[in-house]
Design a protein that fits this description.
The chain is about 60% helix and about 5% strand. It contains 27 helices and 14 strands. The model is unreliable at about 25-30, about 35-45, about 55-75, about 125-135 and about 690-704 (pLDDT under 50). The strands form five sheets. The chain has a six-stranded mixed sheet. Strands 2-3 form a two-stranded antiparallel ribbon. A two-stranded antiparallel sheet has the order 9-10. α1 (about 1-30) runs antiparallel to α3 (about 40-60), α4 runs antiparallel to α7 and α19 (about 380-395) packs across α27. It is of the alpha/beta class. It folds into four domains: about 1-60; about 75-290, Rossmann fold (3-Layer(aba) Sandwich); about 295-370, no CATH class; about 415-490 and about 560-640, no CATH class.
Length: about 700
């Protein structure tokens, strides 16, 4: 039935379009039949009715509900999306985060113990061998084997720097290998729970949003994956959820697991923070990472030889320092910070004060002393800029920082935000207004001299040229304004997106077309009614076609970012790729139309104005707006001294000096402990910028 309706609508629309085209063509050549010209008012009423009917049928057809068919998207697309997602998880979390984590560098085997009381088990989970007595989980096995023993329902606990996330990523690696070899298994996907605390959505809706936002999975694909249990959630950072929302987060996870039955899931959290929540996750089992015993700390330092002799001596003498090094993170930080140091100097530096803070600061100072191929920066500037980055990452619940994700909310104070939001749209709209207004006025004066026909129409003392410039300038201002930066990284056109957006796009096209066509009609009215009608209909159709084309743009699973700020670069590229063909096509059509009525010179000038306007509006919509806004934001942040002018170069500098770690096209701090340290330092230095509530943790000397 829907196919028959579509064919009927297409035929009716084509027939009416042919009528419109024939009438306008004859009108401009003044070859209309006498029967029509003698009753011109009635003719134009019928003409307008036919055009309205044509557009109405298009609205009816495009606005009809979309029937995807019984099979959804094609099997080949399913395979491609699955392969891309597995590849994405491997590049981000295995080749990126796991391979370069500080805990991995230590290569110390982690001790694990059972924590059965940490979870509210739906049933008492036991493993039976041969139908005999129940056994506990064998913690001597690998994390993937433990996960299998628990039936794929596990909570991983530990102190800061103990290697919780590293253990979760080792599990991710094994599960990715399995999913790659068996297409029936779900795709393991790492999610950071901190972003749930900001949205507080239903858990499945949050997962869907994260797949779209973090991994650029089209919403339709994400929804199908989740509804068919094709995603295995690996949830990191329960302790990173705001304190007042952690209990609620536990509740929504429990509701999710209750509704999913035997679906697999793993959750990771700091031990102390989890115990403070009070409520328990409904999982099959829990394990906790044990501190490194003193004998293994000594063996590890001994294996490094003379370069850690001073640190070995300090550990033997200082009980507090020895307790601090019971986590893989602090052990590696100490070895990197105190290489080739003297025992006396280390003893003096450790005397009094907070050893944990001193250890972190010593690591940072050693990192800043390293030479870099990305230039030299003053230490105070590096600390300030990293403090800003850490504060903003906590504020915006970002585990991985991408340059293209920066928003005007990075700015403090309304004046700076207004500068970032309004600067480029106002400047661009003003330039378009001046250039267009002057050009059209010049063309009108030239036409009056050549053809002895004055095109000049004034409203309120403002000429038609400047009125047209004002109309186009206002459109540029509207297209350029956006309070959020939304990179247009992928341009994919689909009939599904067109059907979904048709009503809105047709309405916008008709409004825009009427504004522009009326301005052109005011100029061309001296050439007679047929010519006026021709140009009015032409510009109306151009605008409607433009908006319908833009409405068909839909997101697609794009390639993984491997270059910093790649999203903004792609936005600029897509703006040019989409804007140029449309601008050139409209410029040629408009230039030919004006040139055939007037002269070649008029055709060139008017074609340039029309084509340039379409190019600008299309490019803004297809990514140019995001590029301009991003650059304006970077400029405002530089003026407020929150980031350096060459921000990406600085991030590369911090990465090369082992303060940041690059993952694909994004960055993370080498460990969350350092993110919290820099964020707290920023909040202490800038009393006007309080720390995000419940997120930044004190850096104390407990090692916990």
């Amino acid at each position: 039935m829907k196919k028959q309706r579509a064919r009927a609508a297409l035929a009716a629309t084509g027939a009416l379009a042919a009528v419109i085209l024939g009438v306008t063509t004859n009108a401009v050549s003044e070859k209309l039949p006498s029967e029509l010209t003698e009753n011109s008012p009635l003719v134009w009423v019928l003409f307008a009715a036919a055009a309205t009917a044509c557009l109405g049928i298009a609205i009816w057809q495009f606005g009809a509900p979309l029937d995807d068919g019984p099979t959804g998207y094609k099997a080949s697309a399913r395979r491609i999306h699955r392969q891309l997602m597995i590849q994405r998880q491997r590049i981000i979390w295995i080749d990126g985060a796991l391979a370069h984590s500080l805990e991995t560098i230590s290569k110390i085997e982690l001790g694990i113990e059972n924590k059965p009381d940490a979870v509210q088990r739906p049933w008492t989970f036991v493993l039976r061998e041969g139908g005999s007595f129940p056994q506990k989980i064998d913690v001597q096995k690998s994390i993937s084997e433990i996960f299998d023993q628990t039936g794929g329902s596990l909570l991983i606990l530990g102190h800061p720097g103990s290697g919780k996330t590293t253990l979760l990523l080792e599990l991710t690696k094994e599960l990715l290998d399995r999913a790659e070899s068996d297409s029936e298994l779900p795709i393991p996907v790492v999610f950071n729970l901190s972003t749930w605390g900001r949205s507080q959505k239903a858990f499945e809706q949050w997962l869907e949003d994260e797949l779209l936002r973090r991994y650029t999975v089209p919403r339709k694909v994400a929804r199908e994956w989740l509804s068919n249990d094709l995603i295995l959630p690996l949830l990191d950072g329960l302790d990173e959820v705001r304190i007042d929302r952690r209990a609620q987060c536990v509740s929504v996870i429990n509701r999710f697991t209750d509704s999913r039955g035997l679906s697999q899931i793993a959750v990771c959290s700091r031990l102390v923070d989890y115990d403070e929540i009070g409520s328990r996750l409904k999982l099959n089992s829990a394990v906790a990472i044990l501190p490194i015993p003193p004998d293994r700390i000594g063996a590890y330092l001994e294996s490094a030889g003379d370069q850690l002799e001073a640190l070995r001596g300090a550990v033997e003498e200082d009980h507090q320092l020895r307790e601090l090094l019971t986590t893989p993170l602090m052990l590696v930080v100490a070895t990197l910070a105190y290489q080739h140091g003297s025992t006396a100097a280390l003893r003096t530096r450790m005397a009094g004060g907070d050893r944990r803070t001193h250890l972190i600061e010593s690591y940072i100072q050693r990192a800043l002393d390293r030479p870099s191929s990305y230039g030299e920066y003053a230490s105070k500037d590096v600390l300030r800029w990293l403090g800003v980055l850490a504060h903003q990452m906590l504020k915006h619940d970002q585990t991985v920082y991408h340059v293209e994700w920066m928003q005007p909310t990075w700015l403090t104070g309304k004046p700076l935000r207004a500068l970032a939001n309004w600067t480029f749209p106002v400047l661009l709209a003003s330039a378009v207004f001046l250039i267009t207004g002057y050009t059209i006025d010049y063309v009108n004066e030239l036409g009056a001299q050549l053809f002895k026909k004055s095109n000049e129409v004034a409203i309120g003392g403002i000429s038609s040229g400047w009125l047209t410039g004002l109309a186009i300038g206002l459109l540029v201002l509207i297209f350029g304004l956006d309070h959020q930066i939304r990179p247009a990284e992928t341009i994919a056109w689909s009939t599904q997106a067109l059907r979904a957006n048709a009503r809105r796009q047709l309405r916008s096209g008709l409004i825009t077309g009427t504004i522009i066509a009326s301005a052109v009609g005011a100029i061309m009215q001296v050439w007679g009614l047929p010519t006026l009608i021709f140009f009015f209909v032409m510009f109306e159709l151009i605008c409607v076609t433009f908006y319908l084309f833009v409405g068909g743009v839909s997101p697609a699973l794009r390639d993984l970012h491997t270059i910093p700020n790649e999203g903004i670069r792609r936005s600029l590229r897509n703006a040019l790729l989409v804007g140029l063909p449309g601008g050139v096509l409209v410029g040629i059509v408009t230039g030919y139309a004006f040139g055939s009525v007037m002269t070649l010179q008029f055709g060139l000038i008017d074609g340039a104005v029309a084509g340039g306007s379409v190019f600008l509006l299309t490019a803004l919509h297809a990514g140019g707006r995001a590029w301009f806004h991003h650059m304006a934001l970077r400029l405002a942040l530089r003026l407020s001294d929150q980031i350096p002018l060459r921000w990406v170069r600085f991030l590369q500098y911090a990465t090369g000096n082992y303060l940041l770690q690059r993952i694909g096209g994004g960055y993370i701090f080498v460990h969350r402990v350092f993110l919290e340290y820099f964020a707290q330092m920023h909040s202490s230095a800038d009393t006007g910028t309080p720390a995000p509530e419940g997120r930044e943790k004190a850096i104390d000397g407990s090692g916990q």
